[in-house]
Amino acid sequence: MDGQATVFIDGEAGTTGLGIRQRLDALPVTVRSIAPEQRKDAGARRAMMESVDLVVLCLPDAASREAAAMAAEIAATGGRAPRLLDASTAFRVDPDWVYGFPEMGAGCAAQVAGAARVSNPGCYPTGAIGLLRPLVEAGLLAPDTPLTINAVSGYSGGGRAMIEAHEHDGGPAFLLYGLGLEHKHLPEITRYAGLTRAPVFVPSVGHFPQGMIVSVPLHLDMLAVPATGGDLRAVLADFYAGSDRISVAEAMPDLSAETLAGTDLMELRVHANESRRQAVLTARLDNLGKGASGAAIQNIALMLGLAAPAPRAG
Fold it and tell me: In the UniProt entry, which residues are flagged as the active site (predicted)?
């Protein structure tokens, strides 16, 4: 790419947009912005899109679809259309978009690097897919296994209203939600974990700003082949060997969700009781780091042909 790449964050005032803007300081790019009073001006946004190399969409789903349609119209009318990275759930299972999880398998980073449109993964799916996909691919976990995924996140992932409820009003100590069992992250978890049966997904929010734990309980006797907790750990360790952001750590008797807040890291663990033939898989990450802005920076670097910055490690 000739000269310094240019990036526009459409929705930079939101939580994810602010996080991406801060992290972009680690990349040799020029960030362009629209004046606050023009953020809803379609003409100004279109002109900005045509002037940059990459647009990061940090918008609600409907607004992201409108922005993507605007970029497609630019291309269709012979204009200079930018590449797109979308942080919403709008395109995560769209076959015309590349799912931006570079560590998800061989060739995934190259697919992101060559894509015109990339969808940034969700925070909960990053943990769930990170745990389950390697086991499905290795044949240890059958795709139709009945699974339950439990997760707890800091309140910063809930948007401005939830943040204000916690920071100004005290917020609930613990909130179980999504009990209609139709959470918006289920489709991408199911597809990219390689599952044919949708898991029961039970998310929750705690009264802390950042951090997340995704956990999956397993009966080892329900695995597709006889295996121990050590076998599961070995598969995960081999899958992520060489990653500077995802590590497979030793089991612990307890875990705090806040430990990796402020980092771009994710820790995977297998906590097993062989005598009971039970295990709990856990993924610990920052919902705003590897679960959002940190992943976006990885994808931006790949899409622009830049070296990825070292991950924030606290």
Answer: 123
By annotation, the residues acting in catalysis are 123
Amino acid at 229: G
Q: Which CATH number fits domain 5-121+292-303: 3.40.640.10, 3.40.50.720, 3.30.70.360, 3.90.850.10?
A: 3.40.50.720
- Specify the CATH number for 123-291; select among 3.90.850.10, 3.40.50.300, 3.30.360.10, 3.40.190.10: 3.30.360.10
pTM of the entire structure? 0.95
Q: How far is CA 72 from CA 117, 154, 290, in A?
A: 11, 35, 29
Residue 53 contacts residue 78 (beta carbons within 8 Å): no
pLDDT, tens digit, 9 for 90 and up, residues 90-128 = 999 999 999 999 999 999 999 999 999 999 999 999 999
Tokens, residue 231: 């076998």
Degrees to nearest 5, angle at CA 95 with 94 and 96: 90
- 203 in helix, strand or coil? strand
Torsion, Cα 10 12 16 22, to 10 degrees, reads 130
